[in-house]
Write a structure and sequence with these properties.
The complex is a heterotrimer. Chain A contains 11 helices and 14 strands. In chain A, the strands form 3 sheets. In chain A, strands 6-7-8-3-9-10-13-12 form an 8-stranded mixed sheet, sandwiched between helices. Chain A has a 4-stranded antiparallel sheet with strand order 2-1-4-5. A two-stranded antiparallel sheet of chain A has the order 11-14. Chain A is α/β, with parallel strands linked by helices. Chain A folds into 2 domains: about 40-60 and about 80-235, 3-Layer(aba) Sandwich (Rossmann fold); about 245-345, no CATH class. Helices cover about 30% and strands about 25% of the residues of chain A. By secondary structure, chain C is an all-alpha fold. In chain C, helix 2 (about 30-40) packs across helix 11 (about 285-315). In chain C, about 40% of the residues are buried. The chains are: A alpha/beta, B alpha/beta, C mainly alpha. The interface between A and B is large, with 54 and 55 residues. Chain C: It is found in: Cell membrane.
Chain lengths: ~350, ~325, ~325
């Protein structure tokens, strides 16, 4: 059994209207039936573009939003059904690191106070001296100077603030840490510091992560297994290397090809799949396959009418597409989108003859 | 002669007492039809440089020094009116956040025709037709209908396209793009970058690309200038720079980025400290406190430019990264 | 070996010297930072000086006033009915009023009543308003569906209060309670309640949606503690500013109510609003009699407004460096 099992989770936000009393006029299907498992000591990466529901899913796993349907089972306990007070005490085992390092720290609390808050809530440490000792150990672990205790969040740099956010999660010794865009607000050189820190901590403390990010390169770097989300649902899930080497879902292919690589030698030889159209509204998702309105391989049948299930091909590589096999065999061809070389032509002395996908 | 020649540009904020140098002597050239990259992290002065060139910095409390010759005329000494005429007709700029750069209460169509009227004297039906043609050119489907839409009715990608349409409405000779894709999703970013490439190819517009994303630079720019603390620390052609990053900062940046095509488990080698750990250029190399190759002589005044590898590969460092530690394609025998 | 060690130490020291930042700024909370900014603000200093003078006069007024405010000092030279007034003269710097009382002493002694009305009515509005707002805000952010309903009911009620013209509301209260200084204070205070309530609730709602509140929830912090240690301290700035500014409006509104004849009926206790009301009858012949209390009201209100605006700037998180 996996440490964390998410099964059929749906989060639907009611859309309300009304002058005096609100009535529900529709729903935003932010997360619409997502299942995945995370093994102890591993990192599960959730990747997707804005509006795909990855952040909401992360919050649903922590039950910071109401789960409409489905279950989130951590170590045998279904969080979705826990009464409020039990849920509160259970939170110690499931922590979160936020995207905005400054916004997620109370500007009027000093570091000692911020880091004590969780311990006090769960009765860790009998007095403040004991807690302070523990905080000092954690601060050293995340690479912050010991004199940080009396300082306030605005007195730190962006990278240091994110270290405080990580320390805040760590003091509770959780089983699972959900990292929601842990590095996207940071400068490139600082991103690497934080990624390395997360990896070191995982190794030394045996942590389990769920990393939510839009940056495929970051997710690939840090994750063992990656789930790709589109409009509230997973479209593909595979081991990190496998997903990169052989993406199978058309959306994953397009996403992967769009990520720029900081190396002209590579960029010059890559082809890019350009999608057409915009992301549909999650309040009114298209019928059938969610991606069919933008899919370059959309077919006449099934795509617009039948919602594909996430199915395992037998090797642990799961895809939600009716035509994967046919696309790979070359029996169905591209019907939309555009494939372009990544580099301007006249600059390029080594343009690929035939773009490889 | 280059189209734009920036020479020792300095920008200082704040009056008496507390002065801060945002730009500390930046020099680079942009040729017709070229794509020049200004790369750096937050606080390196890249955005301030672009605002100074466009004459968009507040006149009060800001000192701008150096020269920026555009077609032989110094942009920095122009009057408000002169630079306003240049903007839109000769120079144009697109910003990171398309929503706040567009007027929220005026339909896109009117915002585009306004520019056509001011700079090209087009009015009424011809202006509307031209506006629709512009939207079509930047890949906005159904342009006549879109002209009537307000910015909030469009998606982020469409807004950025509309902004680009407005920027290229008068066929400017230089387009400055300040983080044009940072607020966009990666699949939309790919579309916008493609559009910019097409514009440069077809119109021969010069593009000054300001970004923090080395991946974007790798696929787009001819010449890359890496900025740190308001100075260009390394400048080279695209391939040369990425293949032989010679300044320790550039080298460190490239080592910090997780690459999609790198095998999993390959550790990143970040730069330590943060941008706050720096010294004034007057005292020495601003990067010294974060640098692994720091020596005592790094503190003897600002380092000059040298070209240890090639004439067109300039490095502002006394102890550049030697060849042996550079990432090379060749597998050692 | 040792030579190498020295150069290394040299290297590090030199660098440390150049990068040394002043460590004095470490551990400064936002409140203290705001206070530092306030101390540097000219506007705040001017406002504070005015307020300090006003408070000083209010406290020591009765002892330093040259005459009793109710003593009639005329010696047969005042005939208000004929339009003859005693103007400024030695010993009576502002002249005498229509009943022959020393105007200067009355202005000085009147400051105390004015301050009392301002402070107490502001406190009534602040305490009740903040309590209602805090309840509403906490219910809306942390109380779930029931809480949101509670919040809706409270807010509709304050909407109704806001919809009534404030002066009309005050006059109605005064009509019920009768003519007294207490009436004025209650009336002016009650009018401020919905303003404070809405302000604090709105501020709490904005903070309640912030990431650090979400972080506290994720940590498993109890709701009451989230409300008290996370949401409240960050929601207070606009309320503090409003309290200062409303001292100014309270003084003006109290003057208006006194002017309308709802103030303290006791003629022996001078109050600027009442003085203004009485002086207007003689405005044609003795305009200065209206000017003295009016200028007093204006300057005091200005003092509180300046301080309030300076505090708004000092507390604004957008100016945080």
């Amino acid at each position: 059994m996996s440490l964390l099992e998410v099964d059929g989770v749906k989060v639907h936000f009611p859309v309300k209207k009304g002058i005096l009393f609100d009535r529900t006029v529709g729903h935003v299907y932010a997360v619409d039936g997502v299942s995945f498992q995370v093994e102890a000591g591993q990192t599960y990466g959730l990747v997707g573009e804005s509006g795909c529901g990855k952040t909401t899913l992360g919050r649903a796993v922590l039950r910071l939003v109401d789960i409409t349907e489905g279950s989130v089972v951590l170590d045998g306990t279904d969080l979705a059904k826990l009464p409020e007070e039990e849920m509160r005490t259970f939170r110690r085992r499931l922590q979160m690191v936020f995207q905005d390092p400054l916004g997620s720290l109370n500007p009027r609390q000093n570091i000692e106070s911020i880091l004590s808050e969780g311990m006090a809530a769960h009765g860790i440490g009998s007095n403040q001296d004991e807690r302070r000792e523990k905080i000092k150990t954690i601060l050293a672990k995340v690479g912050l100077p010991a004199n940080s205790l009396a300082r306030y969040p605005h007195e730190f740099s962006g990278g240091q603030r994110q270290r405080i956010g990580i320390a805040r999660a760590l003091v509770l010794e959780p089983d699972v840490i959900i990292c929601d865009e842990p590095v996207s607000a940071l400068d490139v050189s600082i991103q690497a510091q934080v990624i390395n820190l997360l990896e070191e901590l995982q190794e030394s403390l045996g942590l389990t992560y769920v990393v939510i990010a839009h940056d495929l390169a970051v997710v690939r770097h840090i994750s063992d297994v990656i789930g790709v989300m589109y409009l509230g649902a997973l479209v593909e899930e595979a081991a990190s290397d496998k997903l990169y080497e052989a993406p199978r879902h058309p959306y994953t292919k397009a996403l992967m090809s769009a990520v720029p690589v900081p190396d002209p030698e590579v960029e010059d030889l890559r082809a890019r799949i350009l999608l057409t159209g915009d992301l549909p509204s999650p309040a009114n998702p298209p019928a059938g396959c969610r991606f069919h309105t933008r899919c370059p391989w959309k077919q006449e049948t099934r795509c617009a009418t039948e919602r594909p299930e996430l199915t395992d091909d037998g090797t642990g590589h799961k895809v939600a597409c009716h035509w994967t096999a046919e696309i790979e065999a070359g029996t169905v061809s591209r019907t939309g989108g555009e494939v372009v070389g990544a580099v301007r032509e006249e600059l390029d002395d080594r343009l690929p003859v035939e773009p490889t996908l | 002669m280059p189209l734009l020649s920036v020479d020792e540009l300095t920008v200082t904020f704040g009056g008496q007492g507390r002065k801060s140098n945002a730009v500390n002597g930046v020099s680079f050239d942009v040729d017709q039809g070229q794509v020049i990259g200004l790369v750096g992290e937050s606080g390196c002065g890249k955005s301030v440089t672009s605002l100074a060139l466009m004459g968009l910095l507040p006149r009060k409390g800001v000192e701008v020094g150096g020269r920026a010759d555009f077609d032989g005329v110094n942009l920095l000494t122009m009057s408000q009116n002169e630079i306003r005429d240049m903007r839109g007709s000769q120079l144009a700029m697109i910003f990171q956040d398309p929503l706040s750069s567009l007027n929220p209460v005026i339909p896109i169509g009117i915002q585009v025709t306004e520019i056509l009227q001011r700079h090209r004297g087009l009015k009424g039906e011809p202006a509307r037709k031209e506006a629709a043609a512009l939207l079509e050119k930047v890949g906005i489907p159904d342009p006549t209908r879109r002209l009537k839409e307000y910015p909030h009715q469009m998606s982020g990608g469409m807004r950025q396209r509309a902004l680009i349409a407005m920027a290229v409405a008068c066929a400017p000779r230089l387009l400055i793009a300040d983080e044009p894709t940072t607020a966009l999703d990666v699949t939309i970013q790919a579309q916008i970058l493609e559009l910019l490439k097409e514009l440069v190819d077809q119109e021969g517009t010069a593009l000054l690309m300001i970004t923090h994303d080395l991946g974007v630079v790798a696929g787009l720019c001819d010449q890359v200038n890496v900025l740190y603390a308001g100075k260009v620390v390394e400048s080279a052609g695209r391939r040369e720079l990425f293949k032989h990053p010679t300044h320790p900062y550039t080298h460190g940046l490239l080592g910090s980025i997780p690459r999609l095509d790198a095998p999993r488990g390959e550790a990143l080698s970040p730069i330590r400290g943060s941008i706050n750990d720096r010294i004034a250029w007057a005292d020495g190399c601003a990067f010294a406190p974060r640098c692994d190759r720091y020596e005592l002589d790094c503190l003897s005044g600002p380092p000059g430019l040298s070209h240890p590898r090639a004439a067109d590969h300039q490095v502002r460092c006394l102890h550049p990264v030697p060849q042996s530690t550079q990432p090379t394609e060749e597998v050692p025998a | 070996m040792s030579l190498q060690a020295t150069t290394k130490a040299n290297k590090v020291d030199r660098l440390a010297e150049l990068t040394a930042q002043s460590e004095t700024s470490a551990g400064v909370s936002l409140w203290r930072e705001a206070y530092r900014r306030l101390k540097r603000s000219k506007m705040a200093i001017i406002g504070l000086v005015i307020i300090a003078l006003f408070v000083l006069v209010a406290v020591v007024g009765p002892w330093v006033a040259p005459h009793s405010p109710s003593a009639q000092l005329w010696r047969g030279e005042v005939f208000p009915n004929k339009g003859l007034f005693v103007g400024p003269r030695a010993g009576n710097w502002f002249g005498l009023d229509n009943l022959g009382r020393d105007e200067f002493s009355r202005v000085i002694v009147g400051a105390r009543q004015t301050l009392l009305v301002g402070v107490i009515s502001m406190l009534i509005g602040l305490v009740i308003g903040a309590a209602v707002g805090a309840l509403s805000g906490a219910a809306a952010t942390l109380g779930g569906k029931v809480g949101q309903r509670v919040d809706t009911v409270i807010m509709r009620f304050t909407d109704i209060m806001l919809a009534l013209p404030s002066l009309l509301l005050a006059v109605s209260i005064a009509a019920v309670m009768g003519q007294s200084l207490t009436t004025v204070m209650v009336a002016v205070g009650v009018v401020q309640i919905p303003t404070f309530a809405r302000l604090l609730r709105g501020s709490m709602l904005a903070q309640g949606g912030s990431d650090y509140v979400l972080a506290a929830k994720a940590l498993g912090v109890r709701k009451r503690r989230i409300a008290l240690t996370q949401i409240m301290p960050n929601s207070l700035s606009p309320v503090i500013v409003q309290a200062t500014l409303s001292l100014a409006t309270a003084i003006i509104e109290a003057a208006a109510l006194s002017y309308l004849g709802l103030g303290n009926p006791d003629p022996s206790v001078p109050e600027w609003g009442v003085m203004l009301a009485q002086a207007q009858r003689f405005f044609d012949n003795a305009p200065m009699m209206s000017v003295y209390p009016a200028v007093g009201i204006i300057i005091t209100a200005l003092g509180f407004t300046l301080l309030g605006e300076a505090m708004r700037e000092a507390l604004d998180p957008k100016l945080r460096g």
